[in-house]
Amino acid sequence: MGADNSDRQPTPALHTIPIAKRPRKTWSQTLNALLFVIVFDVACLMINGFQFTVLLPIRLIPFSTSARKLYDEGIRYSKGAFGTLLILMCQWFAPTKLLISFEREGLGSFSSEEIEQLVVRDKSGKVAALRLPQKSVLIANHQIYADWWYAWCLTYFMGTHKDVYIVLKKSLKWAPIVGWGMQFYDFIFLARSWASDRLHLSKSLAWLGRRAEKEDLPLTFILYPEGTLVSEDTRPVSKKYADKLGIPDMQHTLLPRSTGLHYSLRSLAPKIPRLQMIDITMAYPGIPPFGYGQAYYTLRSIFCDRVPPPVVHMHIRCYDVAKEVPIGDLSSSHAQAIPSGGAAKYDAVEISVPEKERERFDLWLRERWREKDEQMSRFLETGSMVSDNHSRVEIPLEVRHKREILDAFCFFIPALVGWVYSKLR
After folding, report:
1. Residue 317 and which of 26, 140, 169, 412 are 20 to 30 A apart at CA?
2. What is the pLDDT at residue 341?
3. For 281-297, how does the pLDDT look when each residue is reduced to its tens digit (9 = 90+)?
């Protein structure tokens, strides 16, 4: 007699198995990987080609304000194209959805009325947009390299995906295609040496903030205060740092480093009086307690092997930087600020922050991270970061309109330029 089928254990979902222990890749996964690499690379080439062949010549036109404005709008279009491409790559090669929850109590909380106003749905009831702040610093815990990918996808629904700014290692600046595009996007490249980085960071953010406020443009600056992923290598470093401070280490996150975030907020806040800070706790199903995210989700396993997280959990808080975040008294910093050469592009920036103000902000940020750690514990126990699951908002990562597929390849403007050129010949 055959074995009783009821005694068989169900086959675990691939995303719950560490990558190193997963079954051998199938032909369909190999085909998916090949198509993803081709499509993504072709799209990046088209975006970068548009930047070099159309935008760069416009940028080189001397003493022309209209040319500069046209160039800036073209850069925003190409950055929006890349943001749309990230959504499209999820839709085609790694289907998933965002599951958004909102803090309802304490600091950074939302009322029921505020949540109802910020969630915009289309006629079918599908979420079309999130009316989150248009000028913000977005911070989150950092588990996997795809965190930034999904954060940028969130900005697509916020309407700020054309105005995203991130900090990158200086070594990526001249990476072929991708690095060149990042330079066009005005991303901030740091050498990982605070002595040399702090002035460059402050100057860059002061200029971005001033431009966003003057031209009434959105701005989303994405920053991960932990500085790196939670991993087998970084966990002991966080423990050592906690021991140095004489405090308990986190369980599921790393102790945040406050310096970069503090300088960023102090650089942007004077230029953007209504600056907000969006604080996201991110969690992924399948990662066990005290497990490491990169053992389960890498960019390669998600998009090439087609094993994405079935859902990306995001719990959101929002703070008014001027009223709710202790960044310090900016008026007292003028004596410790230096001019950046008098160029219109930059304003005076700080070179130091008073010790008491640094300590106060550091303590505030650590308290927020303790709350994140508790939320992660709740997620690992219950599968949710909130008690009321009915209040969560589900957003499939898909483009809203089919015509945006062309935008993802930066196709519209080059086609328009070609058409105009053919008519003028």
Report:
1. 169
2. 42
3. 999 999 999 999 999 99
Q: How many beta carbons lie within 10 A of that of residue 86, not counting itself?
A: 22
Q: What is the pLDDT of residue 72?
A: 92
- Find, among 64, 32, 74, the residue nearest to 414 by Cα: 74
- Specify the pLDDT at position 149: 97
Q: Which residues of the chain have pLDDT under 70?
A: 1-9, 332-351, 412-425
Q: Give the up-direction half-sphere exposure of residue 202: CA atoms within 13 A in the CB hemisphere.
A: 23
